[in-house]
Design goal:
36% of the residues lie in helices and 20% in strands. It is built from 17 helices and 23 strands. The protein starts with a helix and ends with a helix.
Length: 554
């Protein structure tokens, strides 16, 4: 196929780098059809040096992204499509994950601290001790976020206070900070040879350092966390030319879109109108509700975040967000730690062996505390309703249901904040391919769940942003807003009363998950000894039952 034939058939091509917690990918979209022409994906490893710590190697991430670019270009050539037809590239990324590096050598000064890392819990306690009434929402009027280990400012503060190489680089004026998008943009546009140090408003809104109104780094917030402004990237809109690739492959192609992965999924689901919402099921689970140009301050545990800003001179669009730490990670835990699964894809077939009415076991997966709407870092995982008949299938079903219950928690909070009940829930992400899970979600939430048959919504979102900056306004000869893909729907199959009864059991289990960390010391008195002993007995009993369940027949 010659260049003219390729361009006539597919139109200009747009690339999307999708760097998530578990993998990096590069996908190429045809603007004439909105289809993915080809892609390449590489897994990204995680390490846990201590309990609650989660790290990744920034160089491994960068190497994976570069290899994905190279292999995808090779794929295009195999398809006889000219890679020169790629006119723009967007980057979407795991949010809050924090990287620091040396501006002269380009080397990371520490591993990337991943968004789910909990090492800053003690720093949060110190900060709250200095805030009136230990109010975790003290900074929300400025940044829209509660004081939590989840966000980048606390991770950066820990690095500045605990890593000598970071302190030395700061003193030498060689320290650079960024979330994964900034790390990639800087390296791909030249690195030490003139790389662009930038981020977009959606990623910046997850640091606790950006003013949610002005969309600039806020002096009060910087002072509060003792963060020097000179190490921060420039904040830009989600859709403009940041710089140009300096890699041999695709050299000179502009990076013209940038969105945090959950905001990118919102755009990719075409939730571009106020009142629309989507839920993404990945390592964690994230529900975003488009509030338009209005900044809605949640009083029920949700975050206020920037949804997108499609151009430097356009108004930002905001969202309410409910963030869940453990979704796909729970099923992975069942596979890796308890060895109840040989493949995470097996969970659907195993759960189908149980009666739909068998809902005795409730699992609260608070391995690193609870995120929205509770924001309780002292929560820990509990499994309730175990009996001698419990087997691995019950635990797997409870793990899947936990994702649905946490989503309902967020839907309930959104209804209280907005006064409106969501009519349908748009879904995406790897876990959304599980039909059983989606039916559970419809039953537990009590509303239809709608899944697009087009699965690459996250990458598509940033492709839209990148194309918009290059003034490619049409996909398939229609406006982007009219490009909604065909969908599948899952309707509630139980009554509202049955759903409420099931949800009430979840709320009981939530109460039992709270207050586990930090555990009191034994020498603080007889009452505290009893509390520690009771907790230990519960944990030991649960472990014994889990080990029994592993070897029972499903």
């Amino acid at each position: 196929m010659n260049k003219n034939e390729s361009m006539n058939r597919y139109g200009p091509l747009v690339g999307a780098i999708d760097e998530g917690t578990s993998s990096a990918r590069f996908l190429v979209f045809a603007t004439n059809t909105a289809e993915v022409l080809t892609y390449h994906q590489i897994s990204i490893s995680r390490t846990s040096p201590q309990e609650g710590w989660v790290e990744q190697d920034p160089l491994e991430i960068l190497k994976a992204v570069k290899e994905c670019l190279k292999q995808t270009v090779f794929n295009l050539r195999q398809l006889r499509i000219d890679p020169a037809d790629i006119v723009a590239i967007g980057i979407t990324n795991q949010r809050e994950t924090t990287v620091v590096w040396d501006s002269v050598t380009g080397e990371p000064l520490y591993n990337a601290i991943v968004w789910m890392d909990m090492r800053t819990a003690s720093i949060v306690d110190e900060i709250l001790n200095g805030v009136r009434n230990r109010n975790k929402n003290y900074l929300k009027p400025l940044c829209g976020l509660p004081i939590s280990p989840y966000f980048s400012a606390l991770k950066l503060k820990w690095l500045l206070e605990n890593v000598s190489q970071v302190q030395e680089a700061l003193a030498a004026k060689r320290l650079m900070f960024g979330t994964i998008d900034s790390w990639l943009i800087w390296n791909l546009t030249g690195g030490v040879a003139g790389g662009v140090h930038s981020t977009d408003v959606t990623n910046a809104s997850r640091t606790m350092l950006m003013n949610i109104v002005t969309l600039k780094w806020d002096p009060t917030l910087l002072s509060f966390f003792n963060i020097p402004a000179e190490i921060l990237p420039q904040i830009r809109s989600s859709s403009e030319i940041y710089g140009y690739l300096q890699e041999e492959v695709l050299q000179g192609v502009p990076i013209s879109g940038c969105l945090g992965d959950q905001q990118s999924a919102l755009v990719g689901q075409l939730c571009l109108q106020q009142g629309q919402a989507k839920n993404t099921y990945g390592t964690g689970c994230f529900l975003l509700y488009n509030t338009g140009t209005a900044i809605v301050d949640s009083s029920h545990g949700l975050l206020t975040t920037v949804a997108y800003q499609l151009g430097a001179h356009t108004a930002p669009v905001y969202a309410l967000e409910g963030s869940i730490a453990m979704a796909g990670a729970v099923v992975q835990w069942l596979k890796d730690n308890l060895e109840l699964l040989t493949d995470v894809k097996d969970c659907e077939a195993i759960v189908k062996q149980l009666s739909p009415a068998n809902n005795r076991v409730i699992f609260v997966p608070a391995f690193t505390g609870l995120y929205a709407p509770y924001w309780r870092k002292d929560a820990r995982s509990v499994i309730c309703g175990l009996s001698e008949d419990t087997n691995s299938a019950h635990l797997i079903k409870a793990a899947l249901q936990s994702v649905c219950f946490q989503t309902r928690d967020i839907l309930e909070a959104m209804k209280k904040d907005t006064g409106l009940k969501l009519k349908t829930l748009l879904v995406d992400g790897a876990m959304s391919n599980n039909d059983t899970l989606m039916q559970m979600q419809a039953d537990i939430s009590g509303i239809p769940v709608v899944r697009p048959m087009f699965s690459e919504t996250t990458a598509f979102g940033v492709a839209i942003a990148a194309a918009s900056a290059k003034e490619i306004h049409k996909w398939g000869h229609v406006k982007i807003e009219e490009c909604a893909p065909p969908c599948e729907s899952f309707l509630p199959s139980i009554s509202e009363n049955e759903s409420d009864i099931l949800y009430s059991k979840w709320k009981m289990a939530i109460d039992k998950s709270l207050g586990w960390e930090p555990l009191p010391e034994i020498n603080e008195g007889t009452k505290d000894v009893h509390k520690v002993t009771a907790g230990g007995v519960f944990i030991i009993s649960t472990i014994i039952l889990l080990m029994v369940a592993k070897y029972r027949s499903v």
